[in-house]
């Protein structure tokens, strides 16, 4: 995951969060938020290692899941802002998304399959039946018989199932005139969610494609439209909004297990993103912090690989019931640091080369497709 810059750059939140994005300037705050969101998810999964007698399952331990809601809002923002700047065509847009998301995801999914086969006890939740693995590689929603939820082989890939559907829907609606796209996207998302609330689909794909998290993508698009028109608040107000969002998020954690979770955390995620964007745009202080920018670039890899890093940590340093507060804090910080280092290495040596190769392939494919569909103009001389 790279920056939001004008030329040939990549910005996505897959993770999640988040394909090639073309904008007129770098939006550094989005990079920082992507790293923050990914780190929240890592913190949540690190805290999940502790037995109940070591750390209670309270609001603090669950608040890391808020990172996913931030990712979804960022994805909606980025896609809307990009489409307003570069006017992409549906098919190339979708291909760019695919080349951005799938190759690194395939690598870590197959790595989990291989690990589960060689070391069955490494991942107790691993389910590697061939048909289920095939669906997982496609990010086609399916029921996970061990986790008892709609998850792929790589469990954190559940967010990507929403992302891929949103990309597909967004690509189709690129056929609309630019002035109608925001209304078209919001209308489609609302209709799908209302349908899902009325029908309560048992089919995993239909459940995902009509689920409430889709509204968070819509919120991100609204923020993108506001940013495009520079309808922002003053920097000090934006910072205040971000603080309010984080404080407001904490008591709403009680609803994370509810089907209405996106309604509990979606507003805070949208408020946070809008506030931070406003703060960056309206201040003269540079937000170009190279380390945070690099961590934002690596947020997708961090999201994909952190279960492996935390699994390795757990094997060598198991959280015992005798752990005190200091040991717990050190364990969590070590987990975050280890996952971050692994995410950076994955981004530099795996994700970027894979995406580069796939991008070249897509460019050649599109160039060939364009040349075969072009008709020569006859001379009238």
UniProtKB/TrEMBL annotation:
Coiled-coil annotated residue ranges, if any: none
InterPro entries: Acyl_transf_3_dom, Acyltransferase_3
Gene Ontology MF annotations: acyltransferase activity, transferring groups other than amino-acyl groups
Positions of the Acyltransferase domain: 27-340
TM region positions: 66-82, 102-119, 156-175, 182-200, 206-227, 232-251, 263-282, 294-317, 329-350
Keywords: Membrane, Transmembrane, Transmembrane helix
GO process annotations (BP): polysaccharide biosynthetic process
CC terms in the record's Gene Ontology section: membrane
PANTHER family: ACETYLTRANSFERASE, BLR2367 PROTEIN
Record-given protein name: Exopolysaccharide production protein ExoZ
Taxonomy of the source species: Bacteria, Pseudomonadati, Acidobacteriota, Terriglobia, Terriglobales
